[in-house]
Amino acid sequence: MAIDYLPVINTHFTLFGGHQETVPADWQWPAEEHPAFELMYILKGRQRTITETGELVLQAGEFTVIPIETRHTNYALDHRPMTYFCMHFNLDDPALRYLLIREYAGRVITPADAIYPALRTQAEHLMAMIGPDYNLADQLDLQVSVIDVIMTLVKDLKVAGKFKPHAADVDQFMLCHQLASDLKAQLDYQIYHAAEPQQTSVAKIVAARNISQSYALKLFQKYYHESPQQYLIALKLATAKELLCQPKARINAVSAKLAYASPSHFTREFKKHFGQTPRAYMRQEKLE
Where's the HTH araC/xylS-type domain (predicted)? Predict the structure, then answer.
């Protein structure tokens, strides 16, 4: 007699909480990264999100998913208060993490997307559950609701034919992700803790992972579409934007903190990357 069985599944996920908040017109949140995915849903106003790989503007009613350990800074736009909902979650299945990072990084989910109605309904259900106390039934409801959000994101990939990653791709991506995290950690030390400005060495970080420079280049080109050095430059310049927005910021001081050879070198690289000089960017930010 033939017997068919359901599979044994041992995938875990974690909800790291969420909240709904209205922030003032001049709100900005310092650069940060989380050991979790962050689902952002803008309810009123507009938000600018700068990440290490690009910049997004979210309109009211739109979503984005910020991947694990992706450095980002959020700003309210339009000189008016902004209301948003965010939720942090993680899951331990490497293939699912890989797919969510690969397909949703830098993407804005709008009403034109097929998954939008379900995602909006699920987000509103989660917001309706926000309260001062949670009993066991509430906690189970929250767990099911977070799984529903994850399933909505995953089913969209399945429909699009993007759901079956090769094991080698997952392993390679995770190694590339580790290298990127190493670069961020070294850059943070250089900027915020080193007694004297020092250059971040891509070669040393790659060697510490016991792989060749050519293999690291292959990984970054495959998954980030740029070299490790270009990725590091993008990280530095994203950090430069944050530093330039600080009160009493000085271009010379920011250039030195980022270990550029001279302020003119920093200015050239900033303009090449963003299409405007650091001084023009500072003037723009003070006006907006």
Answer: 184-284
